[in-house]
Amino acid sequence: xxxxxxxxxxxxxxxxxxxxxxxxxxxxxxxxxxxxxxxxxxxxxxxxxxxxxxxxxxxxxxxxxxxxxxxxxxxxxxxxxxxxxxxxxxxxxxxxxxxxxxxxxxxxxxxxxxxxxxxxxxxxxxxxxxxxxxxxxxxxxxxxxxxxxxxx
Length: 152
Prior knowledge:
The longest helix is centred in the N-terminal third of the chain and has 18 residues, at 2-19. Helix 1 crosses helix 2 and helix 3 crosses helix 4 (59-71). The chain is mainly α. A 3-stranded mixed beta sheet has the order 2-1-3, with no helix packed on it. The model has no long low-confidence stretch (mean pLDDT 87). It folds into 2 domains: 2-71, Winged helix-like DNA-binding domain superfamily/Winged helix DNA-binding domain (Arc Repressor Mutant, subunit A, Orthogonal Bundle), CATH 1.10.10.10; 95-151, Ferric-uptake regulator, C-terminal dimerisarion domain (Dna Ligase, domain 1), CATH 3.30.1490. It has helices spanning 2-19, 25-35, 43-53, 59-71, 113-121, 139-151, and strands at residues 95-99, 105-108, 133-136. The chain starts with a helix and ends with a helix.
């Protein structure tokens, strides 16, 4: 077990060094917890578990650590689709591109997706809906960035 912990410590040290993030005990504890499971926990669950190692750590500290790690690309933030309701007049199966600059959604469709999803995860249960949600910057926002850069 000691070697496994040493491996995780070295891995985290390397990640922090690569992105220029200071290695701290709370960051390591949160990373070690996340690295050791596949539940995709929320802040409350992470806080509950990290407190077993660091009893005095606050929920806010765990929240800040998770956001720091996510903003540096060390962990992924999996946003729940039900946090902010968005509505689509097209109820038929299709996929979405979300522009992180302007907040608009654009529709697109990958016709092969239902078969691919069924083959990959159909054994886990009954699939009610499958869609791809892509995040990025739309062409209009990219063009605005280019125009602004050219003016400077």
